[in-house]
Every structure is written in C-alpha cells, then in structure tokens.
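Known limitations

Files may contain more than one protein. Parsers should not assume a single record per file. Below, a two-record file is shown to illustrate correct handling: read the sequence, read the token line, then continue until end of file.
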Amino acid sequence: MEKVYINSIGSISAQKTFDNNDFLEEIVTYQDNIIPVIEPNYKDFIPPAAARRMAKGIKMGVVASKIALEEANLTDIDAIITGTGMGCVRDSEKFVTAILDNNEQFLTPTSFIQSTHNTVAGQIALGIGCKGYNFTYVHSSVSFESALLDAFMQLELKEAENILVGGVDESGDHTNAIHKLIQHIKPEKINSKELLHSKTGGAVFGEGANFFVLSNKKQDYSYAQLLGIKTYNTLAKSDLVANLEVFLKEKNLTFGDIDVLISGNNGDIDYDNYYSELTNGPFKDTQQVAYKHLSGEFNTASAFGFWLGAKILRTQHIPSPVALNPIKIKGLENVLLYNQYRGKNHSFTLLRRC
C-alpha cells in the first residue's frame, strides 16, 4: 500500500484563507447567525465573462481548486473528486421559484443546468482539460469525507498519482429560511467569539470551498500524511470512545499518540455533548482545537477542519483563536479530526506529520 500525502491546499472561507502564506493571523469576527465567505478577486482567477455566468459555489470551487493546483505546480491531475451537501443551491432556488412564478411555463434551463451537484467538478475539469475520473459525493455532512476516502483508496492502490479533492457548499436564502423555521439555525445573532460557549440550540450557518491535491508522491512542500478516514451514519454517544479506539488500533495508535484533537463543535447545546465525550474523556490532557466559530456550519465544513489540520502540522503552530485549552506540546506528530452533525454522520480523520 502506498502512503498518501496532502501536497497542496486552497481555501475560500469566512476567514482570509485564500492566501496560503497566511495562517489565521487576522481573524474576522461576525455578529450574526449566517456568515458569508470572504471572496477573493475572482477576476484574478476566472475571465470576467465566464465568472458572470457562474454561481457563487462554482466560483468558490474553481478558485480554491486553482490555488491548490498552482501550489502543487500542476496543470492537470488524474482525477477530480468533490463532496457537497447542497450543490449549487442558489440556482436550485432560482429554478423552483421560476416554476412557481411562471406557472411552469416559459422556463429557461440555465439555472437548472447549473444547479446540479456535480457542476463544480465539471467546471474544474473543463477549465483544466481533465478527462479523468470525475465524481461527486452527496452524503450530507460526510460528503467531503466520502470524497476523501475515494481518493485515499485510489492512491493507496496506485490507481492514480495526483487527485484533486474538495468540499464545497454555498448559502441559499430560501434554504436558510427553512433551517431557521426548523430551528437548525440559531434564532439569535451571536458573536462568533462567543459561539462555542452558547447555551442555545442550533448553529451559525456558513459556506465555503476547500480543495486539496492528494498524492502518493511525497514532496518537499507536502503538508501532512493522510493516515485514514472512518465514517458512521449513526453512532451512540456511549459507543463513541470504543469505536474511536478500534479505529486508532487499526492504525497502530492509541489515545496517547494523538497530539491534537480537532473537533467540529458548532455551539449547538443539544449536540456539542458528543465532543465532550472525547474532550472530557480520553483527550482531556490533549491539545484541543475547534474551527466552526470561524467558518460557520455547513455540510462540508469538515473540509475547513481538514485544511486547519494540514496547516497545523506543516507550521507546527496552533493559532490562539482556534485553541480550546491552554495545553501546548512541541513536536506535533498526529492530528485527529472528529465531526458530526446533529448526532448523525460521524467521521474520524487521521493526519500525520511528514
């Protein structure tokens, strides 16, 4: 089996992450329950005529992928694998609204064509002329992990050498309104610095695009080694620690071998207690990190956590805005990411310094 490495990254998020030379030196604070991404100058990456016809999610994905490819010094790759929970939801909303407003008549197909979940991966492939394997996973909040696992297995088995993997989701007004009605979004606007200490239900929603070039060829500029991914559709809190122990044992690791735990806490008082099983249990003396107060919650928010883990291992630095406890250990080797959403779709991802 070949080892798998993260050779480059590209991130468009609610923070200034599109410049890979920075690592959360300047944090943007929000007072809201829905936060947008900080968009780069798309004209620097996409011809203006083409950008005008692209949905926001497509533009975010295309730019994040270009940043990742440029950092990896690649113009083409063997495969493109993306994960998305809602796809280009804004165009979906436009098309459904047009159906209702026009009594199902005189409809233009543009919004429908651009609303499909695989549009981002298709646009990336067209842009770089990639005719290789192209697949999009739509698996709710493990969509990114599903794409990651696909790429991981292909690279382990030497079926490919360089694969572009990413997670992308955009924010849609109508969809957010529904999430507010069913109380998945917090009813009150909250300062992002205080989110993780919130005592109310629901999350602060966001959006973003995070892409990575994975390879079985280690480079001098590689960020980290990807050791493994494990997902569960359902997992009881009482079984969480035991299942994680089995996963770590498969990689010849124990709880004590983990130097940093990156948790997907989102400030939802009804479900953040899943993370407490680990933070107050086997990892109570381990450095702990969180990120959704910076990125917001969305189906592929865990891709931002993956970006954070890769940056931590390469820089050997944990920015203070993401630290959950004062514990500091030098020589960071192994990072564990744990994410779940509303008690379902749990994922463990292991990274190692390379």
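...continuing to the second record:
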Amino acid sequence: MVIEFESARGLILIKGRINGSRPLSLLLDSGAGTSVLDESLIESLGLSQIGFETAEGAGGSVDAQRLQPVEVQIRARVVGRIPFIGLPIKGIEAALGKTVDGILGCEFFEQGVVTIDYAEQVVHLGAPPFQNQATEVIAFQLDDGVPLVRIRMKLSDERTIEGMFGLDTGAQRGLTFYAPFTDENQLLPFPGTAQTLQSGGVGGQRGTIMGRLEEACLGRFCILRPLAVASPSAPPGALDSTRRAGLLGYDILQQFTISLDYARGEAYLTPNAHFGTPIESDMVGIGLQPLPHGIAVTRVVPESPAEEAGIEVGDLLVQVNGETVSTLRLEEVESRFRIPGQSLDLSLIRDEIKWMANVVTRRLI
C-alpha cells in the first residue's frame, strides 16, 4: 500500500482511522516507544481506559492513560490492533502548524516493513524493503521500541566519537545529543557559532544548544557539517537516558529512502536526490510559530539580521517580499530564510501597527 504524506517541518503526517472514526491526522514516529492519541479524543472516539502509566517524552515524564487496543485503518486497509496511550499532545500541533490527533509509534512499525520515500513524500506499507545497488543494510537493536543505530562522528575540534542513536522520524534535527552523552564527551560549548533554542515534544519544552559537527557517518554514508542539538541538562524523562547517545532525525534521514524491518532488525538506506545537499539552518535569526492570522516571532537571535532590523519577539509576520504568509506553508517560509545573500522585505505587525523590515540573509551557524 502506498500512502502520500504531508510534511510538517520535516515530520510525517498521514491520514488514518481509529475504530472506524473520522479521518485523523497521525504523526509517523519511529522514535516513539508507544503510540499516542490526544487525550481530548478519548471520549469522542468511545475508547476504553484500562489503567494509567508514566510516559517519557522529550520534555520530561508525564502521566498517561493506558487505552484498550484499537483497530487502526489506513485508507481501506486495517493494519492491525494497536495499543495506545492518551496524552495531551496539542503542543506538538502548535509547533508544527498542523493538526496532530495522534502518534503512530513502535506498535505500528511492528505490523510490517515501512518504507519512507522522503523525495516523493510517500510511505509504503507491507512491501519488501526498497533497495538497489547503492543501498546499505544496517542492523539495529530495539530499545523500548526505538531502533538504535551506531553513528560515528567527527567533531569540529578533530575528536572522533561514536554512540547508539535512536532512528527517529519524529525528530527534526540531524542529531540530538542526550544530556549524559553531552556531559561524558564534553560536547559543549560547540566550537564556532552556536544558538540557544527551546525544543521539546511530549512533556513540554527544554533548553538546548544547536551547533555543527564536521561529519556524521551511518554505515558507509557520511554527512558533512550536520546540525546537532545538545541538551546541557534534561528533566527526568526520555532525554536523560544513558542507554542512548541521542536521536538521528530528519535533516539527515531526508537524504535517503528508508525501509524499516522491525522483524529482522534491519534498516535499508538508499541515497536519494537530496543526498549530499548542504544542511542549512535559519539565516534570518528568528523562531517562528504559525497562528491563524500570521506567523508569530518566538525568538530573535542576538547579532542576527532580524535583531539588526529591529524585529522583536511577539511581532507577527504577515508577508515576505509582498507574498502573504497565510498562502504559504510554514516550510515554504522557512526555506526562503535558508538561502544566503537573499534580500527579504518582511511585513510585520506590532501592537496593531504594520511596519516593514528588510533583512539580508547570512549563515549564522
């Protein structure tokens, strides 16, 4: 079965039904050790609670409702009966600017081979693993339902380190380092320029620092100058794990067609047209969050084009070079901020007053 997916800041959203429900927007997340439904849907979907448990997310530990296994249907096909937990996940929805009703985690991937074709934006379910002469087959081990693969890295100070990373289709950055691995390998401060961010997921937000490595290698494939996010500290939860070095996410994964075979414990990586493309980050110096009437500025990087132009947290971005942002996907707006040397006329609103700022993009990391 072939399913088109919608990309939301690099994450994968597909349509599915729970026990014959209306179509729901579900995040395909190999980094989720269990599948999740937003707790606001439990009653309306007629789901039965069978207990409580503690769930560990990127933002810390949270209390969850354990639900009776449900029938998951993708298009006209029932893919299996899958146990879910109920959690408040609308914070993820706000960050992505897309409706997110639930998360398909480990139990979904266990139903059969899942192939993600990032270039064509389709997912294949149940087909044999995609492979050709360029394919690398990499064994993985499951840790609480998350596939772990070994990554070799060269740091900007010429040190070489390696660790086991969760292959995570629900993570945006190329590499996310957990706090114990960060401390053990003295990864901070990153050599060169770096940025302080707020990142998160289930459980809330956390402070992180983003910089670059010289190289990250998965099997025989090496990615040059990947972005990495390090957690200098983490609340009790997923990111304080000592069993994993961290997560391997979209910035790197999108350069491949990936087949995950949980039964065999194998990942098949085949380079696509994006392979070798430089990984760029925001070159304006602002964090963005979509709102119904525009895009809110949530962060301004010091000494960035945005700060130099007088942009402040709380400003509302409504146009880029005369084009209304409500007619663009958030990813389209962000992609225009990742091309160096671009002159951008930004129309913003502050205190109900519309004003213009001009920025010229430049690499900040």
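Parsers that stop after the first record will miss the second one. For reference, the second record is described as follows. The chain is about 10% helix and 45% strand.
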